Amino acid sequence: MRNDDRVLDGLPVDGGAESLASLMDALRVPGLDHELSDQVQTVAAFTAALGAADTVDRPRRGPMKSRRSRFALTLALSGAALVATSGLAYAGALPGAAQDTAKGVLAGLGVTVPGPNQHAGTHPDTRGNSAAAPGRAATSDTGADATGDTSSGKGKGAAISTLARTTTATGRDKGAIISSTASGGKSHAGNPSGNASAHQSTGTSNQGGTGTADGASGGQDSHGSSTAQAASGGHSSAGSGNAGIHPAAH
Amino acid sequence: MSGLDEFAFQGALAAARLGEEWAVALLWRDLHPRILRYLRVAVGDSDAEDLGSDVWLEVARGLGRFDGDASAFSAWVFTIARRRVIDVGRRVQRRRTDPMSPQQIDRGHDEAPGELEARLALDVALRRVARLPRDQAEVVALRVLAGLSAEPVAEILGKSAGAVRVLQHRGLRRLANELAAEGVTRQTGGAIFGVDEPLTA
Q: Is the ipTM of this complex over 0.85?
């Protein structure tokens, strides 16, 4: 050990450092009376501060309680969510994939719930081309509303799509042809806006103008409407737009 | 350099946490004189006692969170003391009031001769250390009074252990040179004082 450390640690040192060692020993002398004269007051203040620190510490336990409360709340909410999900599964009201999962999980618990296709009737949720779904066109609400022809929705959509791709008309004319075809002649999209007032009087132009391109396909072939819109250079949207601005003509 | 062995310290610590005054008194009597001496070196006599009280109040507030042995307790309390010194240094310029000189000591005080001699020797030793450059004085005081090795002192001061060793070496060399220059070579009270007058009145 170096001499410095021996001096500082109060260990014996060689002759040259004796005076220095004595100086350090003087620093180490046990507590003297005058240094300890405040013992009574200091100890009393210390214990009082100790009690105050306990009091101050108590609120710090608050977060622990709060954490317990949060845990209980989380547990309760999780339980409620589980019950609600089970109820929906029992009613068969979950989305297909979720219903299927719930059926599997609850079956493991001995609870029987309907599968995703239980209420599907003639159109179970099967993978593949939507056109392959039996009876889909016949039961499509969209097709019925939009075209008024429940039997020709699919074919009409395809026809419109084909027309949009093959017609030699361009621009506004192309949009007008497609829109008119899709609406069965009800839409006059692409016509000068002055004609809109006539449609307004019929009370049919709005549905014809807006719903045709999409609705005519029965929702089965969006290509027809999107192509019609794109192929017309934006004029097809003018068709629906025309209808949309009809109220402004009042 | 604690007067308590580890077993006694742990017992006193546990009882002090429960508010047992005897245990608080045991810890205080063991450590307070050294804390007070460190503060006298660091800030001078005028502020040392007030700061010492502040240190113990802070110890009381943090005692529930302390976990360690006697050496760690000493390091913790001296760390608190040093923080208080820094706080004082921020408030006012450091007043390096010399510890009470031998001439200022009330020699008529009712003290046993041995007690008086130790007190005079202590005061002179503190004065010599306090005259060192601040960082050297702090290292020497902490090494001797806190009874800590270079590593924990380095931790308290926020320096490397190597830097602490350099500072302690410079401080000790400076003290040795002063003593040599004053012709102090003997291990006596008079030698430490560096004065010719007798120690007692």
A: no
